[in-house]
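Pilot study result, target chain (641 residues):
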Amino acid sequence: KLLFAQFHDILPGTGIQKVEEQGLVKMDILGLRTLTVIGDALDNIRQSRGIDLDIDNIPLDDPEVYAMLAAGDTDGVFQLESDGMRTYLKALHPERIEDIIAMVALYRPGPLEGGMVSDFIKRKHGETKVVYPHPMLKPVLEETYGVMVYQEQIMQVASTMAGFTLGQADELRRAMGKKKAEVLAAKRKDFLAGANQNGVDEKTANEVFDLMEFFSGYGFNKSHSAAYGVVTYQTAYLRCHYGPEYMAAILTSFMENADKVTTYIEACHRAGLEVLPPDINLSYTNFSVSDGKIRFGLAAIKGVGREVINQIIAEREKGGNFTSLTDLCSRIVVNKRILEGLIRSGALDSLGGRRSQYLAVYEQALDIGRRYAEEQASQQLSLFDFGMEQKKLLEVELPQIAELSKMELLHMEKDSIGFYVSGHPLDEYTERLKPIVNHRLSELAELSDRASLRVAGLITGNQNRLTKNGDSMAIFTLEDKTASVRCVVFPKAYAASRSAIADNNPVLVNGRLQVEDEDRYTIIVESVFALEGMDLLAVPKGMEAPKQPEEEKAGRYPRRRREQQPEPPHAVVYVRVPDSSHLADIRRLAADKAGSFDVVPYYSDIQRYQRGLGIQVDSDVIDLYKVQFGEGNVVVRVATK
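Predicted structure:
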């Protein structure tokens, strides 16, 4: 209290150096979300498996954990999730906790740019010989294969070679970090004198001091790295051996972050973990685990507050599971908006009815349930005093109507929970997209500004706008299974792609990345293609049209041919027609509708393509071709290179 009274007036405007000179200890106190995630995971393990895991006493040499890390399977693992880190882990093949601690220290801009990480990995695997500046330093640097990784190693070198006390070694470390020339000159003199007393020649001592000075710019605090490394290993251990419980804790932690939840749900799918929609009889407030499956929490449903959730869970524990829509309405206080959210999210699917049926009668069920609850409350005294028979709940009759389409159900989940749970609109395109797309949206952080992209996803939040010149353009959000990104379509690209741009459309987008800042990106769109109709025509291979004389001539002069060859089209529309007499119709429909689709006719009579016609159309013409020649005879193929 006395110290605070003495210094509280000057601290707000005082620099770090001055504070230290006043004799005060400076501390950086970090709060880690990961520690809460670990605690929640341990609670999940206790509830789902009955195991009280002591995370501070897990084995630090588990081969399965290191095998998982060496495979780059690090979704949800603290500090190790980036694509760059995964690449280095695959090369490093960590086998001990010290390897993880070192990677936490090395994976920073300085060491990465200086080549320290690659050198460290090569030394570990014997590809580069491990050498020490002096034999007496082997005990200090052996752990890191002769590389000075930690600030503490610089202090140890000074202590071992020059006899510095730990206090003197720390002063040297700080002087090197602050690059104070006059202080370093004095420290070098002290270092050379101490090294000489230990039998080290001046040339070697100078070389070691130079190395210390060089590595001080990259060295990281080992105590910090060790603490982070242990937490990293703990999360990897939980991911490896208690995947459902750990991922449920991760999902709970990021419940308010739609992109993160989307990314981790996809990670669960890749790991073979099933993520189930919320269930009125099985879900709790947050994500939970049952029979090895992750269940959405009721708190994920928009508009369903904690008070209602607590009421649902308490009533379920008191009176057993809910058995029907009317039973639910009679036992909890719920309004139309909340009940509709429960239905649309899929939380009532287990009650036996279809969502379409519940949406048709939920208002009626609310009225019946409310009246029944009021009657029960008013009759309670009479029932006990006079033995009156309790009235039975009148069930609402569900209409015999078909269920909504799969796509409608998915969009309901997205609207009510914020995520697709029971499936994804892109699922049916997954195999076809593999050879076409070059990035997932979650990978954008690893790319440089102006990087060329071919990505697929769903359009949401589409806004059509006019430029100052009155030209149409669009701005929308593209979402895939891993993340979302803002997309801008300027007039020229919009004119060629406008029919594909609409909310909830699954599309393929070509464009370039614009890096706004560290966490914000925009795709400047060059073209947009609807994913429907991208199958190839089933025609015999090797049936190309004969080369035209101009093509043969150009073939003799490769350099000239390359110069004249146009940019490859983004996509090709194949039109199957009986014979070449229909080429006039193909040209007529394409008149004045230039776009980015290159038209290639296929003549059934001779089983030949005709390329190089120079006909390029927009997506509206494709629809005209389908009307003219039949939908099965018009197919879009997107270039894969």
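One observation from the pilot: DSSP finds 27 helices and 13 strands in the chain. A full batch analysis is planned for the follow-on phase.
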